[in-house]
Specification:
The protein is built from ten helices and eleven strands. The protein is α/β, with parallel strands linked by helices.
Length: 304
């Protein structure tokens, strides 16, 4: 069976419905439905059944998913190994990166990489931090780029930037008159208590590190401002830039978002500066080939 069919089955099982699986696979819903029906017809088995409105693998489906995962892993492994012996004129670059980071980094880094390696196939995977590290350990991706303060013993890390946690306000905010310079902070500083009556746009504190930092700051100052959870960083920054509220950002936001949004002001907060490390990571003892090494170097140049 074509390996693409295994991807269809595994992704459908992961999402539990055809619509979301089709979006993830970048194909139409009818095309995915037709593909699965064709597989069932060829194998003379039922792969999915509907339970409580969700597509659930049958016994046959579970066997196909297990076998398919093994086959796809073998395919990724041999491609991974071939890439190691491939010369740098042609090859593949596989990078896992967290959302938002790809928005800031890739439009700058990829064109520079293409100038040097124009014939490389580039695979970009948007994932959460845990999923990135899992993909590195399983050799599904070669390098990962994300924020972290904890380190897996089976991976090695290069720190791209030690990033301060900042808040973002509109340049027309009435609160800018309270800003001051404070020792130990890179940016102009503001007392968070001044902002306690404002709306804060935050990421989900149960799923996102930046959202957890927001709660840490609120607890530190014993304030309970109104919050609105918005997943997309750029949406949060856009709302802050027009004065609808306030949001938190990593320092990378001041480096890249400010270029496109002149209405944002980035400020330090907190009794002590809080930071996280933006890293590139890969398997322990793995020697990156020339192409991967160059990709990392180009990225590092953006933070010098």
């Amino acid at each position: 069976m074509d390996t693409k069919n295994y991807e269809y089955i595994i992704t459908t099982a992961e999402y539990g419905n055809i619509s979301n699986a089709a979006k993830a696979l970048y194909i139409t819903q009818p095309a995915l439905s037709k593909a699965i029906m064709k597989i069932e017809e060829n194998l003379n088995v039922k792969i999915f059944e509907k339970k409580k409105g969700k597509l659930t693998p049958t016994s046959a489906g579970k066997i196909l998913i297990k076998s398919g995962a093994e086959i796809l892993n073998i395919e990724k492994n041999y491609k991974y190994e071939l890439d190691e012996i491939n010369n740098c004129e042609r090859g593949a670059l596989s990078v896992s990166i967290t959302p938002t980071r790809d928005l800031y980094i890739l439009p700058i880094v990829l064109p520079e990489f293409r100038k040097i390696f124009p014939y490389f196939d580039i695979e970009i995977n948007e994932k959460g931090i845990d999923a990135i590290e899992e993909s590195l350990l399983n050799k599904e991706s070669k390098i990962g780029m994300y924020i972290t303060d904890t380190f897996n013993k089976n991976l090695q890390y290069e720190v791209l930037q030690q990033e301060e946690i900042l808040i973002c306000l509109s340049k027309n905010s009435k609160y800018l008159k309270y800003v001051e310079n404070k020792k130990g902070f890179k940016f102009p500083w503001i007392d968070l208590r001044v902002l306690k009556n404002e709306i804060f746009f935050i990421s989900n504190p149960y799923k996102a590190k930046l959202g957890r930092f927001a709660n840490i700051y609120f607890e530190e100052y014993n304030i309970k401002p109104k919050t609105m959870i918005i997943k997309n960083m750029e949406t949060r920054l856009s709302l802050a830039s027009i004065g609808e509220g306030i949001t938190f950002s990593y320092e990378i936001g001041s480096t890249f978002s400010k270029k496109n949004n002149k209405n944002l002001v980035f400020l330090s907060v907190g009794k002590e500066k809080k930071t996280s490390k933006f890293v590139v990571s890969y398997l322990k003892d793995l020697k990156l080939n020339t192409a991967y090494r160059k990709f990392v170097e180009i990225t590092k140049e953006q933070f010098r």
